[in-house]
Design brief:
This protein is of the alpha/beta class. Helix content is 41%, strand content 14%. It has helices at 54-60, 73-77, 81-90, 110-130, 146-159, 182-190, 214-232, 235-238, 253-264, 270-273, 277-282, 295-304, 321-329, 335-349; strands spanning 13-15, 21-25, 44-50, 93-99, 135-140, 164-168, 170-171, 174-175, 194-198, 243-246, 286-288, 310-311. The strands form 3 sheets. It has an 8-stranded parallel sheet with strand order 3-4-5-6-9-10-11-12. It has a two-stranded antiparallel sheet with strand order 1-2. 51% of the residues are buried.
Length: 356
């Protein structure tokens, strides 16, 4: 299993036979797209920007088949921070927060998971030093290895000064509200950490509909499953210091929010685990716009969460960044709302970014 499927959703990526992802499959979109002649002023902050460290790629790429309609194997293997910076400059992105994508670093081997986490995080930290002001870091941890994850959280936040921690929506079939993850969330809460959550291939439902890749439906649903898990198991109310960001507009959560509230608010422990009601809790989370910026998607998201909770994201390098920006520009926002989504909300969440 290896990095590639940016879990990004909406049927845009080619899923791999191993049950892992290889990237996106957006018609007529290429990740390494040509820029407009006049480059926009760099101001956007991209909270959904994937790194593909060469050593990680070298070790893991044979686990998967790189067949991809949008980005070739050679392009992915040739990825570099300088290439990322070029795409950012073409599209008015001042800063991008690096994160890993599915399947992450956990392949059932504790030692390997710890080693890959450290290698990935150190590589990203080097890029941050080499390109001052251009990158942030949502560090990877080797869940479901609790001890290894706690050690890597300490290293990433104290030594590397990461902006937050990046998690996948599920690990070995367990969603983030599972009791086995409680020690990790307790530490993240103690540190008042920003936690970025990216979808992955669900253990239950990788190929429910034959010939339909999981990115089409299952990735967005995995995000919603993990949000539900966090709510009903009390993880959110027990850890109020964590600020959660959910990828792709929260998956299908905006469309199901009312239904979730109608049912979950009547559970026997609802007052204990969701004291503000499901809808009240959902309004506290942050959601990025990667592959979720079309007008209908944004309308659903804005019906669930205030504009202050929406963050700009691109899902680079698995989609054409300019096309995602174009989608978002088709949505009607006031100038102040657009500035907040593209930059201001991220700075309010992570003030360090305002100095970049």
């Amino acid at each position: 299993m290896a990095l590639f499927s940016c879990g990004c959703c909406m049927g845009r990526r080619q899923f791999l036979a191993s049950g892992l992802a290889a990237a996106t499959a957006l018609p007529a979109r290429r990740a390494f797209a040509q820029s407009p002649e006049v480059r926009p002023a760099a101001k956007r902050i991209d909270v959904h920007h994937h790194f593909l460290p060469p050593q990680y790629m070298k070790e893991e790429h044979e686990r998967i088949n790189f067949g991809h309609d949008n980005v070739s194997t050679n392009q992915l293997l040739a990825w570099s921070p300088s290439q990322s910076i070029e795409i950012m400059d073409r599209n008015g992105i001042a800063t991008a927060i690096a994160s890993i994508t599915t399947p992450g670093v956990w392949f059932g081997d504790v030692a390997a998971g710890r080693r890959l986490s450290r290698m990935w995080n150190d590589y990203a930290a080097d890029a941050i030093r080499n390109y001052p002001g251009r990158y942030g870091l949502f560090a990877v941890v080797p869940l479901p290895d609790t001890e290894g994850s706690l050690k890597e959280i300490e290293y990433a936040l104290d030594t590397l000064k990461a902006d937050g921690i990046g998690l996948l929506s599920s690990y070995d079939g367990k969603y983030l509200g599972d009791a086995s993850f409680a020690p990790v969330f307790a530490e993240l809460n103690r540190r008042k950490t920003v936690v970025y959550v990216h979808p992955t291939v669900p253990a239950c439902c990788g190929s429910v509909v034959p010939t339909v890749i999981p990115q089409t439906v299952e990735f967005p649903f995995d995000t919603t499953r993990t949000i539900t898990s966090l709510l009903i198991n009390g993880t959110i109310v027990k850890n109020p210091g964590i600020r959660f960001i959910f990828s792709h507009g929260g998956g299908v959560t905006p469309m199901l929010a009312g239904r979730m509230a109608e049912i979950l608010d009547h559970r026997p422990n609802a007052a204990e685990v969701t004291p503000n009601g499901v809808l009240g809790e959902l309004r506290k989370f942050y959601y990025d716009t990667a592959n979720a910026g079309r007008p209908a998607q944004i309308a659903a998201l804005r019906g669930m969460a205030p504009t202050s909770q929406i963050l700009f994201g691109t899902d680079y390098p698995f989609v054409k960044v300019a096309a995602d920006i174009e989608d978002l520009q088709q949505t009607l926002f006031s100038p102040s709302e657009r500035e907040a989504i593209e930059r201001g909300n991220a700075i309010a969440l992570l003030p360090r970014l305002g100095a970049s």
